[in-house]
Amino acid sequence: METLVVQPAPIPFYTVLIFYLGIMAFIGWYASRGTNSLSDYFVLSGKAGVIVSGIAYFATQFSMGTFLGVPGTVYNVGYAGMAVSVPGAVFCMILPAILVGKRLVKLGHEYKFLTMADYLSDRYGSNKMSSFLGVLMLVFLVPMMGAQIIGAGVIVNVFTGLPEWVGVVGMGTVVILYCMTGGMKGAMLTDVIQGGLMIATAIVTFILSVKMGGGFENINQSLMKMNEAFLSFPGNTNYMPWQFYVSQIILWSFFTIGQPHLFTKFFAMKNHKVMFKAILLGTAGMWLSATLIEWSAVNAITFIPGLKNTDQVIPLILQQGMNPFLASVFIAGIVAAGMSTIDGVLVITSGAFTRDIYQKIINKKASDESIMKLSKIVTLIIGLVVIAFGILKPGTIFEINLFAFAGMGIFVVPVMFGMYWKKATLSAAFASVVTGIIVLISLTSIPALKPFAFGFHPLLPAAVVAAVVMGIVSLFTKTPSEAIIKKHFSIFKKVNKQEV
Questions:
Q1: What is the rounded (10 degree) CA torsion for 268, 142, 153, 337?
Q2: Residue 48 pairs with which residues in a beta bridge?
Q3: Cα distances (angstroms) measured from residue 276 to each of 181, 279, 335
Q4: What distance in Å separates the CA atoms of residue 214 and residue 199, rounded to the nearest whole number?
Q5: What does the pLDDT look like over 160-184, one tens digit per residue?
Q6: CA–CA separation, 298 and 209 (whole Å)
Q7: Alpha-carbon gap, residue 487 to 491, rounded angstroms
Q8: How far apart are the first and last CA of the chain?
Q9: How many CB atoms lie within 10 A of CB 7?
Q10: By C-alpha distance, which of 5, 30, 72 is closest to 308?
Q11: Phi, psi of 2 (to 5 degrees)
Q12: Statement: residue 280 has pLDDT above 80
């Protein structure tokens, strides 16, 4: 069977996409009218309700990787490849909410925290933590945004035949504009629309893939004839041994705690009751979207065989199976996946420089008004760097996304220790993150050291080493002051008494 070649349909694609991007830009302008303070700009002043909180969390967590990179990987692996994110997607909001969410909602409202750096620098009693986190966010989150914008290039290329850089520049420009104007309010309001589109795209793509493959029975028989490994673990090329399977579940659920753009979402929630309702909504959206979109890629193995650029598999299903205008509507759902991640990350990353580095370290007298103005300039600069990264395209969407996610994931260690252990110290926090990142990069990039990961994703052993370092260094360094301990631990005793 030969791959069906479909001619690009630029007019329907541009018509729908321009309309969609226009709506996103309008929402950014609308959000800017109610953005009057730093608290509004970064966390909606802690007033986000159930729908905005739940859908925005899942829309920010899911990205171009979910709709392009992961399906591209699954296409090469078969059913086993679905374990890349499906189990983790079920828990990626539940675990963070249970372990840190309720505490963060309370801390955010009580002490006006706006960023992860606010929490860490306050918990460990030093603004040096802010600058340290800010620098690492620029190192790891710029590539994460770059991975999303690469996906826009892939989509434009498939639907119009134009070079990928056109899509990279176009999407980057729109996201920069509405983030500059509306901040987190603009990001989270657009996320609601984008999240709905993502779910619709996953459902429609799955139905199309089943139809195009001739039904479930025919698809599975075809996969059996092509390669039995497509139907079972560890999949084609032995991609998913049990260690890697376990790694993926832990990676996409537990380590989301260390992602600043997801961490901050808890500060935006109105209260813990809203948070738990948002979990139900967000989890349902994540599970449904991830399962159906990845399953669609498995089905596509049978009717789009031999695809070289596997990141194109989902756009090709939509393009081959639908009227050009309808296909363009749902392809906007994939664009939404990328935009919903970039906007949240872009606002947080600009905040890392303006608030966590500039206001806390460089110019402590800077007013909130000046920081808001500077945030918009920094958003533009970082956005342009992301566009350049997308044009250069140093790796696949999945590879870049995984690298960035793992790099920030190591912050789980100082967050969890800081939240649950009174003796956790600043020196230990620095030592744990530095050690963890060195181990992570070493196990990832040095062939001779890769066996020491024992088949697991390098982030897992790196986090274990970081946790050991955190514990040991804390025992041999000065315990935080009583004021810090009281501020971060006594508050929850009061809450518990009130609840009783």
A1: -20
A2: 269
A3: 30, 5, 28
A4: 23
A5: 777 888 888 887 887 777 666 655 5
A6: 9
A7: 6
A8: 67
A9: 8
A10: 72
A11: -100, 150
A12: yes
Q: Which of 237-246, 257-266, 358-367 has the highest mean pLDDT?
A: 237-246
Q: What is the pLDDT of residues 81-124, one digit of tens each?
A: 998 788 877 788 889 989 998 899 889 888 888 788 889 999 99
Tokens describing residue 429: 């926090």
Taking phi over 0 as left and psi of -120 to 50 as alpha, with beta for the rest, 292 belongs to alpha
Q: What confidence score (pLDDT) does residue 190 get? A: 66
Q: How many CB atoms lie within 10 A of CB 109?
A: 17
| Residue 499 pLDDT | 47
Q: What is the DSSP string of 291-302?
A: HHHHHHHHHHTT
Single out the residue of 399, 233, 226 nearest to residue 311, CA to CA.
399
DSSP characters for 232-292?
Answer: STT-GGG---HHHHHHHHHHHHGGGGG-HHHHTHHHHBS-HHHHHHHHHHHHHHHHHHHHH
Statement: residue 482 has pLDDT above 50: yes
DSSP code of residue 311? G
Q: How far apart are CA 312 and CA 320, in angstroms?
A: 12
Percent share of the chain, pLDDT over 90: 29
Residue pair 97/275 in contact (Cβ under 8 Å)? The answer is: yes
Cα–Cα distance, 360 to 121 (Å, whole number): 10
d(CA 137, CA 224) in angstroms, rounded, equals 45
Q: Which helix H or strand E contains 207, and what residues bound it?
A: helix 164-212
Give the residue, 33 or 55, on which the prediction is more confident. 55
Closest CA to 375 of 153, 186, 201: 186
Tens of pLDDT along 22-38?
777 677 666 666 555 55
Structure tokens at 100: 């840190």
Residue 40 CB: number of other CB atoms within 10 A? Answer: 20
Compute CA 392 distance to the chain's CA centroid, rounded to the nearest angstrom.
21
- CA dist 116 and 214 (Å) reads 49
215 CB-contact burial (10 Å; exposed 0-12 / middle 13-18 / buried 19+):
exposed
Q: What is the dihedral of CA 65, 246, 217, 223, to 10 degrees?
A: 70
Least Cα distance to 334 among 316, 321, 355, 347 occurs for 316
What gap in Å lies between CA 113 and CA 488, rounded to an integer?
12
- What CA–CA distance (Å, rounded) separates 180 from 186? 9
Express each pLDDT in 195-236 by its tens digit.
Answer: 778 888 899 999 999 999 999 999 999 999 999 999 998 999
d(CA 430, CA 129): 8
| Cα Rg, the chain, nearest whole Å | 22
